[in-house]
Design a protein that fits this description.
10 helices, mainly alpha, 2 domains, transcription regulation, transcription, Arc Repressor Mutant, subunit A, WH-like_DNA-bd_sf
Length: 194
């Protein structure tokens, strides 16, 4: 039971009892996805503490509904969708847009890891805006792979989609970004990792 995270001081008895009764599969899921969910939430919300609270609520929701989640065709895709809804609800409550373009982690990841790749771009703001305009799934693929620096196979696992679907979303996103920024792009030369 040492894998069970410390409960907040105000946690009531029912929550404590629930955490003791959860199956090992939930704790494995929690261990595998909590950090990346939190990183993703922080990129969009722009506040570490708020992101922690949102992800904690998502994990508690998943815990309470664990048996139902396990009956889903793709539990990972369902959990990802629940996270996305929770983040959007938080953004709606705060009356804001996703903070991705202002997040230092995104800025650092683009500048440090992909400086050469994006050297042709005249404006970082143009790139950020182009990414922000992507449809939901290609946006998630780009953020998870290039901003949070996850390999494509991990992106597929997190989103509950196939590796070829990740590649397809990535190609579509790159093509749309290139069009938006008036850059040349050949989707058939997207020879990135498998």
């Amino acid at each position: 039971m040492s894998d069970i995270p410390d409960m907040p001081p105000g946690a009531d008895r029912a929550v404590r009892e629930l955490t003791r009764r959860l199956p090992p599969a939930f704790w494995a899921f929690h261990q595998q996805y909590y950090k990346i969910y939190k990183s993703y939430a922080e990129l969009l919300i722009g506040d570490d503490e708020v992101a922690k609270r949102v992800v904690h609520r998502v994990m508690m929701d998943l815990a309470v509904n664990w048996a139902r989640l396990m009956r889903e065709a793709s539990p990972e895709a369902t959990a990802w969708a629940i996270l996305k809804i929770a983040i959007q609800q938080e953004l709606d409550t705060r009356g804001g847009e996703p903070a991705l373009t202002e997040t230092a982690a995104f800025h650092r990841a683009i500048l440090d890891s992909y400086r050469e790749r994006f050297a042709v771009l005249e404006s970082q703001l143009g790139l950020y805006a182009a990414i922000a305009r992507l449809p939901e799934r290609p946006y998630d693929v780009i953020v998870l792979q290039y901003v949070l620096e996850l390999p494509p196979r991990r992106v597929a696992d997190i989103m509950g989609i196939s590796l070829p679907t990740v590649r397809s979303h990535r190609r579509m996103a790159k093509a749309k970004i290139a069009r938006d920024l008036d850059l040349a792009f050949n989707p058939y030369t997207d020879d990135e990792d498998a």
